[in-house]
Amino acid sequence: MSSKNTLGLRLAVMAALVFVVPAWAGTIFVSTSGKDAGTGQSWAAAKRTVQAGLDTAIAGDQVWVATGTYVENITLKDGVALYGGLAGNEDPATFDLADRDFQAHETTLDGNQNGSVVTSPEGATQTTRIDGFAIRGGTNRGVFCLQASPTIANNTITGNAGGGIHCSQSSAVIINNTISGNIATMNGGGIFSTDGSPVIAGNTIADNTSTGSGWYGGGGICCWYGSSAIIACNVIESNRAAKGGGILCLKSAPVIANNTIAANTATDSDGGIYCQDASPAIANSIIAFNSSGIGVSGSSTPTLRYNCVYGNMAHDYRGLTSPVGTDGNISADPKFASLVHGDLHLKPGSPCIDVGDDAIVQPGWTDIDGQARIHGTRVDIGADEFDGTVWQPGPRVIVRVSPEGDDANDGSSWEGAKRTVQAGIDAVAGRYGDVWVKAGVYRERIVLRSAVSVVGGFAGNEDETGDRDCRANETVLDGEQMGSVVTADGVLAGAISGFTITNGNAAEGGGVCCRDSALAIADNKILKNIASDGGGVYCRYSAAAISRNAVSDNSAEDGGGIYLSYCRAEVDSNVITVNRASSMGGGLNAHYGFATLINNTIAYNSTSSGVYGGGVASYSVMTITNTIVAFNSSGLYLSGSPLTQRHSCVYGNMAYDYSGFIDPVGTDGNISVDPKFVSPAYGNWHIQPQSPCVDAGDDAMAEPGTLDIDGEERNQGGSVDIGADESDGTVWQAGPQVIVRVSSDGDDANDGSSWQQAKRTIQAGIDSVADRYGDVWVKAGVYRERIALRSAASVFGGFDGTEDHKSDRNLRASVTVLDGQAGGSVVTASNVLVARIDSFTITNGNATSGGGIYCSSSSPVIANNIIKGNTAANWGGGVCCRSASPRIVGSLIAGNTANEGSGVFCIYLAASRTAIMNSTIAGNSATVGGSVEANDRASLVVENSIIAFNSSGVLKVNNKTMTLRNNCVHGNIAYNYSGIADPTGIEGNISGDPGFASRYGNYRLLPGSLCIDGWDDAPRPTDVEVDLDGLARIADGNGDGVAVVDMGAHEYAGFPILVGLISRRQHGAAGVFDIDLPLDGQAFAWGESRQGGVTELVIVFSEPVFAAGETPGGPEVMLSTGAVEGMTLEGDRLTLQVSGIDGPACLTVTVAGLANANGQPLLGGQASFRVLPGDVNADGAVSILDLVQVRNELNRPVTADSFRADVNADGMVNIFDLVTVRNALNTTVSCP
Predict the structure, then answer these.
(1) Which of 743, 934, 943, 1026 could covalently link to 758 via disulfide, CB atoms 3.0 to 4.6 Å apart?
(2) Residue 235, H or E segment
(3) How is the chain split into domains, by residue range?
(4) Could you say which architecture CATH assigns to the domain 1058-1223?
């Protein structure tokens, strides 16, 4: 006979046994108010004890017991049916026992810790019945059946030692009971069966424990030698044992049909079902979310048909080949109504509906609710038969916690709240309840317990969880750096939701540590935690549901954000950002097991090396759907593990997007484009309405009721979006979460909350904002410091110290200088993500590499800066990018020197991608290499930029990719391009004079420049709205009616500009000689070298200018030293007669109050130069070289070539000039 036919025959026998309805004779009554001397023939003459009632009855009688507690140990009588759950006034002639109210009329048999509570006599048959009692307090089982086969129905059997029910050589019928909280020191915490064929049907068997070891076990049910139990339509959950947390089968052959076996734990072997030398028939059953699934050993030969085995922590199957896909077996989330609240009904859409084997179902079978089996086209898998009901599960008990509470309270109301979260958890443990926590800061580390949901975000007056507002009522769990903030060890059906989990520091899981548990982690902010593994979240051998969390700024060796080890995990709708790992998996590391990632945003995470999965590292079986992985130090790293990816956006990761996996872009809905986050700098990870991720996801992964990170319904448009945010068309207005102000007259002891309370140093401002997604606003001035950028901190210069908004700045008037004092790199970014430096003059750096900015394993935005006058001994006079991916936008990089890459040098870019956009790189000098150099596998993009008049141009050396689009590369001395084919004429690239106002310092564009409105399709950086002068970044510069962005750092808008500066002196009879003073840039050392300094200064403009209306008396001229004695404005020149500028000094001249004929005001009317008498060779210092130059010209007439040697300006180079130089030896002047 086949196994299937054997199963059907045995189930038919079960049906015949369970549904026999016997005929009864007399009734005996028992009541706590009765007397054993009574006849027991009526309620008025009721017996006092249950045993007295049984002793009075004869076979065929019923004993009715009124509500109350009976402290006694009873022995049933063969053929007598014992009923509890009665009020004590029912008439047997009219009352139907099916109408009993067990809760209202609880009838308790308390064994008083004195042996078995209920014993069935040997030889008892199924007409012997105990029905409707609470059976507790036994020390040798709750119900003991030896060679007896009674019916045990509708009882609650709880809190007994030795186990709930013991069946030896018994074919008892055990139906519709709740068997919970029992403990057996050997086998069968709930039910033990050996050498018999009991029927176990329609029971809830939960929270029982077997403490036995070795061959012992079976937390829920133990089928021992010779047991052929029929186990059908039961819910078996949250039981514990060393072996077989749910069911242990040892040398037995039970039938296990239409059961739901969930959330059971085994410390040794198989939390669901463990088979040792057994041959069970398992059909139509759900085995899900246990510590492990089904395991076999020895000579076991289980039969598996139409089961759903899913989400078990360590494994679904052990010791046998997975049968999934054969004989109706599936592996899919059964979709319980609420595991954490103990509600294992099926939700609509469950894959277990209508997919069971009807042949298993016998006439009269009901589900766990007593409803008829087969509701629909076919029987369902599991204990519940879905009938269309949408269950609204809720907690069975609620305990409240408040900062104002007291742990002595019971927590039943907000007024009687407990004080600590742990006290609330302990009060609810094992009761399928909630702990509601009021907003506040709780400095404690908590340990979760099974069947407890811990929920934060309450104001302290709510009646429903749906009334809370987590954003308004922040509830903080602060671990105080003392270990894991939240720990779950061996927890089943647990949850934590609505908290800010922070400041943890542990070996495993700084924020949340989950081991051997089934845990839901939802709607939390998990921030600033540290661990060796799993800075934010650590899960090992667990079934984890991680949903709608913000996991940010955590760090670990492996798995900076999340670490999964041997888990079955679903990671859904989380924002995982700015986490760091020193080894692997900055955002997430999945180490073996199964990981499903759906609708997450994983961005700006990093590893120290830049590689090994800055976003995601996986050694597991992984499925990624509808997920963004962008702007991490690297993207997805797989090590020999399978990956299925659909409808995801992987883009802009520094080292690579994919490693160990063929790039799937263009297949299965996968894309690689900028997801267009609203503002990473300010921690706003929503996508903009025009994001390519909108409506680009897979709708199959967005079931009805699915929510995004904001708790909004998925699928707001044509299709579900990619990422954690579902765009509803909102145009987000992002801004800093905190602002700290800095002023040269501030104090670092201040908090920086206002200009009046400004800090003194920029570094102090950065440190106070770091990781807070805030701004540092810096008042104009010279700051002689070298700064280190930090993650989630944006630094802005250009303020005058009165502004309330960044848009109020006047960048031309409020120049903010960072002077490195030749002490190293002026700005350093090391392992920094989501940072920005904007609107500074960065100068006077001197370092091995990166004189101006040194960027390592980082991705800052470098915008609207002037980076000039810096030096590097090796690489990158202006900027050095080492394994980094900065974005350099709208910046001027000029007058820097280095051995290689005088302007920008990029190396080791196998771990980075650098972008240079709308920038001007000019007047830089390198000994070898280019002014822009990409070396050693670099990925470099240069767009809309000018690279001109450097010692060399663009150099590509052994790099990966270089993209040049819409650039002007011209006039570089050694070459314009090397190592790359000249792209001139392709993709908008040109080579012609860019038309600078002055190639030696003023790099604004003159009318007619080729770079004005450079290319119809020119890209424009969306986060840089103004140029270096504060002008709108896009203008119609050539007057053709179409506004197009210009190439370079300056946008031409027709304003007059300062293009030249001349110091004019009379040299006796030799005549007048001019020194053309550079405005900035390559020749910044040039200056006035004559004794007596400046006497006449000629300022040259790009066009004729006139006094503006607001200054009718003439232009405003300010000198940093000296005085203006007179001035003449004529055409495009302003001539000043000055005095008191003898030097050595740095002279800054500022001109305002001028405009062109169209009324457009003067733009950039400020310049600085050195006044250094004796600096004949214009190298910035008076030295022996100047003495030699004067000596070589002694007694010669002054000419245009030699007049600088006439230091005294008397018309002859003579001994007086030599003495003047000698007296000034070793003099230098520092000048911006």
Answers:
(1) 743
(2) strand 235-237
(3) 26-161, 165-393, 820-1054, 1058-1223
(4) Sandwich (2.60)
